[in-house]
Amino acid sequence: MPDLADFHQPITDLFPQPKSASDWDQYRLKKSQVEFFHENGYLADIKLLNEAQIEALMKALDEVMDPQHPLHHLFHEFHSNESGDPNKVLFHSLGHWRIADAFHDVIWNPAFRMAASQLLGDRPVRFWHDQLFCKPAHHGGNVAWHQDYSYWTRTVAMQHLTCWCGLDDATEENGCLHYVPGSHRWGLLEKPDLAGEMDGLMAMMTEEQKADFKPVAIPLKAGHAAFHHPLLVHGSFANYSDRSRKAFVLNVFADGTVSDTNEPLLSGVPIIPKGEKMEGKFFPLIFDRELKN
């Protein structure tokens, strides 16, 4: 069974690819949407998936969550419950794009790629890594308030972007995302324990930031996504509802980002020396102007 990271193009027909530059126009964000992103630090309710694509990804999710999967060793991280508390279960993994066809190909979803490039300033885009965040019904754990880039300072410059997409409907009852609009202008804060106490970040904030801390809920239908800035403060509350909340995350950066460490950037990934460009097998170029023609 192959490591799908060796394939830098779609390997199934799940996400049909545009054949010409004009074919990309249907995926282009409006100017007002891009402006909203830069003002608030996020853009929500972007449809990325149809029912067939959701079904394929759900099937793949059930397979990769099995710790006995024959390609389990390809995960960069795998936490059946990152919280460690059986009453607050948070499944979290990185690297499933290497294992499942559907999660590999969702990276080449044209709707995702076009939006990512626009929100990064119409720049070429490279894949950083993927994540799964799954909260079971009744005892699903929280994701503490945090900024993504606080975990990513091993890469510079800060020109990253996160896309969160639900496979279940995400509601306030089952633990949807919450964003703090405008917090992407606060600068870099210390990083908390991702599955720790919800409010751990508060101790690292100034009084002014605490006064401006006004989270908004981001409910999303399955197949719809939210994009956010790497410094936007966000998190999600526990799930005590009767419905699960399953989601995947795609993290990217603008082409030209470099390594800022001589340590491995991800578990199982060969070292890219400090100052050298992030590229190669694990960081494929997924969008460029040339790819649209």
How would you sum up this structure in a few lines?
The chain has helices at residues 31-40, 51-64, 101-105, 110-119, 207-211, and strands spanning 42-47, 77-79, 91-94, 125-135, 143-146, 155-156, 160-166, 177-179, 216-218, 224-228, 234-236, 245-254, 258-259, 285-287. With 293 residues, the chain is α+β, with helices and mostly antiparallel strands. It has a single domain, classed as Jelly Rolls, CATH 2.60.120.
Helix-strand layout with pairing:
Layout: H1 31-40, E1 42-47, H2 51-64, E2 77-79, E3 91-94, H3 101-105, H4 110-119, E4 125-135, E5 143-146, E6 155-156, E7 160-166, E8 177-179, H5 207-211, E9 216-218, E10 224-228, E11 234-236, E12 245-254, E13 258-259, E14 285-287
Antiparallel strand pairs: 1-10, 2-3, 3-4, 4-12, 4-14, 5-11, 6-13, 7-10, 7-12, 8-9, 8-11
Order of helices and strands: HEHEEHHEEEEEHEEEEEE
| Poorly predicted spans | none
What's the tally of helices? 5
The secondary-structure class comes to: alpha+beta
The level of helicity is 10-25%
CATH topology: Jelly Rolls
CATH classification, class level: Mainly Beta
List the quaternary state of the chains.
single chain
Proportion of beta-strand residues: 15-25%
Average predicted local confidence, pLDDT: 96
Largest sheet at a glance? 8 strands, antiparallel
Shape: globular
Secondary structure tally: strands: 14
Q: Let me know the CATH homologous superfamily.
A: q2cbj1_9rhob like domain
CATH architecture: Sandwich
